[in-house]
Fold:
Amino acid sequence: MDNKVTVRTLKKIKDNNEKFSVLTAYDYSTAKYFDESGIDVVLIGDSLAMTALGYENTNCVGVEEMTIFTKAVAKGVNRAMVVTDMPFMSYTIDIQSALKNIGNMVKNGANAVKLEGCNDYIEKLIECTINMGVPVMGHIGFTPQSQNVIGGHIIQGKTEDAADKLLKQAKRLEKAGVFSIVLEMVPEQVAKNITENISVPTISCGAGRYCDGFVMVCDDLFGKFDAFTPKFARRYGDMKTLITDCAKKYIEDIKSGDYPNENEVY
Ligand code: KIV
Structure:
């Protein structure tokens, strides 16, 4: 497909001072409608641990589960770039097993993978992953897979030292070769400074208005997930009410004998 979104498309968008859109998706039809709507990147986020599987946090989801969701989403997408979040412990044990798990996502339809954090090991892994032929999206700031070490959902980069550390991490990831970097729960001015000082596109996940791209969890967009909604999420619908109303009406129609009617039988 000629207009397939690639790493080059996103770089061009940044260089042209334009913005790109990223949404998470966890199933075939949602991914298909997002793609038909013109979304640039579809992310099979490990947020699906909570939104699709009902787990307590992202650390509960594994490679096999992420593979199934990747396969479903990738089948629905033609134009957008498909990125899979590598789940907790699937890439941090050693490079060999990490590359095997990453390769598995690509075999199942991912165009790229997202890795959280920045340290010597992650830098080396990014280089090896790119050498294997797989583009890498970085993710710094609040990194949910390390929430137990961080001590909760806490805004990152608030002090001068912390902001400086984030900029250094972004530069390290840039040097390692990532094609984009998610900045999660970072003050707007800190994200702006990073965006202006690196050549790869930044993606705001609660990092304000000045990043090159923006990501949102689809269940927040839909108003479907009700356990919590982060400040930076904007609800564009009320799917919880829609689903509940549909189910209630269906139950009512069965009880009243209205469903099925004469046109709905063979
Ligand atoms: O898991 C996820 O959905 C994510 C995005 C919100 C960046 O990592």
Notes: The mean pLDDT is 97. Residues 24, 43, 45-47, 85, 182, 205, 215, 217 surround 3-methyl-2-oxobutanoic acid (CB under 6 Å). Residues 238-266 form one domain.
